[in-house]
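step: validate -> pass
step: tokenize input -> pass
step: predict -> running
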Amino acid sequence: MGEAYIEMFTSPGCANCPAVKKMLKELSDEIVGDVTIEEVDITVDPTRASQYGIMSVPAVAINGILKFVGVPSREDLQKAIVEELEA
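step: predict -> pass
step: emit ->
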């Protein structure tokens, strides 16, 4: 089984970021495997956001690949994490 390194890009005042953060936390507790989540504030670290071409938040990258911009469905997010763990 592989690992899933998740970068969640946020900014202060982002209305949808807390919902995605909560979803990621719940999924990381439920999914069996090596799941690491790092929250990246784009106002503090704009360079990382620009490396992915991120123009809006929330955004989620898994193992260095931008997977979602905006709020993904719980099912899509879970599927993306599990796919990385099984890769």
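step: describe -> Helices lie at 17-30, 46-52, 74-86.
step: cleanup -> pass
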